[in-house]
Design brief:
The protein is an alpha/beta fold and 359 residues long. It has two domains: 185 residues, Rossmann fold (3-Layer(aba) Sandwich), CATH 3.40.50; 153 residues, Glycogen Phosphorylase B (Rossmann fold, 3-Layer(aba) Sandwich), CATH 3.40.50. The protein is 33% helix and 18% strand. The protein has eleven helices and 13 strands. A seven-stranded parallel β-sheet has the order 3-2-1-4-5-6-7, sandwiched between helices. Strands 10-9-8-11-12-13 form a six-stranded parallel β-sheet, sandwiched between helices. The chain starts with 6 loop residues before the first strand and ends with a helix.
């Protein structure tokens, strides 16, 4: 069984027109599994349970069918050319092919996953966050008890699921591309007053607190340089002369590498991918002390923590690095060393092992 090649369905909600962390992870799994010789079909599902704006679904379906005929995202580059892409109305037996495994992500899809017949293979619910920001808290948490294989990505999600179900899920830490995200500019030689930050309009990302903190820091340190990147067009509050704004940058590793510090102000996260990418690239990270960050940010060791929803706490934590060159260099080096464990080769093989063990 170790050398078996599997037919794997990967089920994703909607069709993403702009970058998103959870979808990117599934594209990475698809790409790397395909390069290992497994047969992969990615399905984007238009209609999932408990969705808002139900009456807009037919229009979205037609729009995507017309505009995205191949359903290959323009913001992600696949290394494999053997992956198939499908856009379906809903997840059902008739809409997806028989397979050795079917892996879905996003809690509401798990309720359709359990209705698939055995010909669709091992059913895996891949849990990347405590996805309650749109409501349905009870249904989200009940999805962790559905009769499928549950796989999650972080220590805090593993504990949350166990506390709710008294069953321990499988855990696979995220993998990161350490060929793409790596140190190019030496940590100790970087401008110590250079900061990068990711902006999002999602409330749970807490970007408004990060922007306020940057404004305070700029007043205190006029020599500060700031790079902000985002998946959305520049909002009015970022149209400031001292902010270098980057929309969906193609050169993200270079942005990380020309900065000494990365700030993440999230209020809620399943993980926090940009912060980890920044650590791979040699940034000292200031991160809110939410559970999703604490898998890789150890305060005063691999990063500096601050309180969520509080720009003054972000400022105080960042000042520690701005005022102490040696601390910043040590934190950046420790963080870079720590994140090397988050390897795509290991993550992919562990997913294959879970499939093998449950066939």
């Amino acid at each position: 069984m170790q050398n078996s090649k599997f037919n794997i369905n990967i089920i994703l909600p909607f069709f993403p027109k702009k970058p998103g962390g959870g979808v990117k992870i599934m594209y990475e799994y698809a790409d790397r599994l395909s390069l290992l010789g497994h047969n992969i079909i990615i399905y984007h599902v238009n209609n999932t349970r408990y969705i808002n704006n139900f009456f807009l679904l037919p229009f979205r379906y037609l729009y995507h069918k017309i505009r995205y005929k191949k359903f290959i995202p323009i913001w992600y580059t696949f290394s494999s050319n053997k992956i198939s892409f499908k856009y379906i109305w809903t997840l059902s037996n008739k809409n997806i092919k028989d397979a050795d495994a079917t892996i879905s992500t996003w809690w509401s899809l798990a309720y359709d996953l359990i209705k698939l017949n055995d010909k669709k293979g091992v059913k895996i619910n891949f849990i990347q966050d405590h996805e309650t920001w749109a409501g349905y808290v009870d249904k989200v948490q009940k999805s962790y008890s559905l009769p499928v294989i549950h796989v999650t990505t972080s220590d805090f999600l593993e504990k949350l699921i166990y506390d709710l179900t008294k069953k321990k899920p499988h855990k696979i830490y995220y993998g990161f591309d350490n060929i793409k995200f790596k140190i190019i500019n030496k940590i100790e030689e970087r401008n110590p007053f250079s900061i990068c930050f990711m902006y999002s309009n999602e409330v749970r990302k807490g970007s408004k607190y990060g922007i306020k903190a940057l404004q305070i820091l700029k007043d205190q340190y006029p020599q500060l340089t700031v790079d902000v990147f985002s998946a959305i067009i520049i909002p009015n509050n970022l149209n400031l002369p001292w902010i270098n704004f980057h929309l969906q940058p193609k050169n993200l590793p270079l942005i990380y590498n020309r900065n000494a510090i990365f700030i993440t102000s999230s209020i809620k996260e399943g993980w926090g991918m940009p912060a980890t990418e920044a650590m791979f690239c040699g940034c000292a990270v200031v991160a809110t002390n939410i559970e999703g960050h604490l898998t890789f940010v150890k305060n005063m060791e691999t990063g500096i923590t601050c309180n969520p929803g509080n720009e003054y706490s972000i400022v105080e934590s960042t000042q520690l690095l701005l005022n102490n060159h040696n601390l910043r260099v040590n934190i950046a080096n420790n963080g870079n060393l720590f994140v090397q464990q988050f390897d795509w080769g290991f993550a992919t093989q562990k997913m294959v092992s879970i499939i093998q063990a449950n066939l």
